[in-house]
Specification:
By secondary structure, the protein is an alpha+beta fold. 40% of the residues lie in helices and 10% in strands. It folds into two domains: 272 residues, no CATH class; 99 residues, no CATH class. It is built from 17 helices and ten strands. A four-stranded antiparallel β-sheet has the order 1-2-7-4, sandwiched between helices. The protein has a two-stranded parallel ribbon with strand order 3-10. The protein has a two-stranded antiparallel sheet with strand order 5-6. Helix 1 packs antiparallel against helix 6, helix 14 packs parallel to helix 16 and helix 15 runs antiparallel to helix 16. This is Epoxyqueuosine reductase.
Length: 374
C-alpha cells in the first residue's frame, strides 16, 4: 500500500462514484465518540420504540471498527431520489387519495444503492489488492448521518436528516467501510440557523426538540416499523399517509434547491402514485405482493398495509362508498389487527354529518358551471 497515491485514489473514488450514479461521495475517519452519549440517552428514553435492533448492538453504531475489524475510513455516498411530478400538495389535500412517502414510490433503494456501492468497492479493490471492505445501506448498526456529515455530504438538520445547501434532503445515504487510510474530507457548516419549520409542521410533534426525534410519535415509524395497533391518539393525525411521511422535508427551505432524480428506478410506479384509498383497500394479498415486488413497501406486509389504509379511510371526508367498503372489508378480514382499525375507521366516518346525494350533485353541477336542472 505504500506505493499507492492515496490522494489520487480518493479523487478517483469520487469520480467513479459519480459515474455509478451517486451525486456526491465523501470520506471520513471513524471517530464517532462524541455521539455516543447522545445515542445512549436516546435509547435510554425509549425513543426507538419497538425497533429493538436499534438497541441490540449498543455502542457498536458509533464504532465502525467493531462492525468490520480493521476499518479506518468510511466512504459515504449520496443518491438523489426526488421523483418528477411528485404531486405532494395534490395528494395530501385529497383526503380519499393515498399518500405514500416519495422515496417508496419506486424500486427499493436498498437494492439499487448496495449494488452500486459494491461496484465501487470492486473498482477500489482493483487498485488496492489487499482492500477489505463492506457496503451498507440501512443494513447495519452504524450512525450513517453523522458519518455523512463528517464526510462533507451535508449537515444534520433539526429533523435529524442530512441537508445539503445545493440539493436539500431528498437523497439516500450509503457507506463503504474500508481498511485504507484515505485522506478525509472536511465537514460543512450547519446552516439551519433559527429555523424550526420542521419542528412546527410535524403532525404528531415527533421532533420533540431540535435534532431529537421520538420515533414512537413519528408517522413513518407508526406506518412502517410498528407491528401492532397504531395508538388511537395518533390515528387522526396521520391523515391519508399510509406509508411514511414527508412533511418535515416538504417545509424545509433548503429543499427548494432539491434536484429531480435521473435514476429511473426511483421514478414512481403508477399503481402506487396518487391512488384512491378505496382502490388500494380492494387489493387482495396476492395483488399486494405482485404490485409491490421490488418495492420497499412490501416489507410491511399485507396486514399492516390494510391497517394503514383503514386509518386513512377513517380520516377521509364522509362517504357512503367508504362506509360500504369498510363494512365489506370488516366482514371479509381474518386479522384482528385489521378489524380493530376498520372498526375505528367506521366510527370516524359515521360520526361525521352525511351529505345527501342530491346536495352533492347540486354542488358538483355548480362547480362545473352547469345549469342547476341539468
Amino acid at each position: 500500500m505504500s506505493n499507492i497515491d492515496l490522494h489520487k485514489l480518493a479523487q478517483d473514488i469520487k469520480q467513479w462514484g459519480k459515474a455509478l450514479g451517486f451525486q456526491k461521495v465523501g470520506i471520513s475517519d471513524i471517530d464517532l465518540s462524541q455521539h455516543e452519549a447522545t445515542l445512549q440517552q436516546w435509547l435510554d428514553n425509549q425513543y426507538h420504540g419497538e425497533m429493538e435492533y436499534m438497541a441490540r448492538h449498543g455502542m457498536m453504531r458509533a464504532r465502525p471498527a467493531e462492525l468490520l475489524p480493521g476499518t479506518v475510513r468510511v466512504i459515504s455516498a449520496r443518491m438523489d431520489y426526488l421523483p418528477p411530478d411528485a404531486s405532494f400538495a395534490k395528494d395530501l389535500k385529497q383526503s380519499d387519495t393515498a399518500y405514500i412517502s416519495r422515496y417508496a414510490l419506486g424500486r427499493d433503494y436498498h437494492k439499487v444503492m448496495r449494488a452500486r456501492l459494491k461496484q465501487l468497492g470492486e473498482k477500489i479493490k482493483l487498485q488496492v489488492s489487499d482492500l477489505n471492505y463492506r457496503p451498507f445501506v440501512d443494513s447495519a448498526p452504524i450512525l450513517e448521518r453523522p458519518l455523512a456529515a463528517k464526510a462533507g455530504l451535508g449537515w444534520v438538520g433539526k429533523h435529524t436528516l442530512v441537508l445539503d445547501e445545493e440539493s436539500g434532503s431528498w437523497f439516500f445515504l450509503g457507506e463503504i467501510l474500508v481498511n485504507i487510510p484515505l485522506p478525509v474530507d472536511k465537514p460543512v457548516q450547519e446552516k439551519c440557523g433559527a429555523c424550526v419549520a420542521c419542528i412546527k409542521i410535524c403532525p404528531t410533534n415527533a421532533i420533540i426538540e431540535p435534532y431529537v426525534v421520538d420515533a414512537r410519535r413519528c408517522i413513518s415509524y407508526l406506518t412502517i416499523e410498528l407491528d401492532g395497533p397504531i395508538p388511537e391518539e395518533f390515528r387522526p393525525l396521520i391523515g391519508n399517509r399510509i406509508y411514511g411521511c414527508d412533511d418535515c422535508q416538504l417545509i424545509c427551505p433548503w429543499n427548494r434547491y432539491a434536484q429531480i432524480t435521473d435514476e429511473q428506478d426511483f421514478h414512481p410506479r403508477q399503481l402506487l402514485k396518487s391512488q384512491e384509498l378505496l382502490t388500494l383497500l380492494n387489493w387482495t394479498e396476492a395483488e399486494f405482493l405482485e404490485r409491490t415486488q421490488g418495492s420497499p413497501i412490501r416489507r410491511i406486509g399485507f396486514e399492516r398495509w390494510q391497517r394503514n389504509i383503514a386509518v386513512g379511510l377513517g380520516n377521509a371526508n364522509y362517504s357512503e362508498d367508504i362506509i360500504v367498503a369498510l363494512e365489506s372489508a370488516l366482514e371479509a378480514s381474518t386479522s384482528e389487527l385489521v378489524k380493530e382499525h376498520i372498526q375505528w375507521a367506521l366510527s370516524q366516518q359515521k360520526s361525521r354529518p352525511s351529505v345527501s346525494k342530491k346536495t352533492l350533485r347540486l354542488t358538483r353541477s355548480i362547480e362545473k358551471g352547469l345549469p342547476r336542472d341539468a
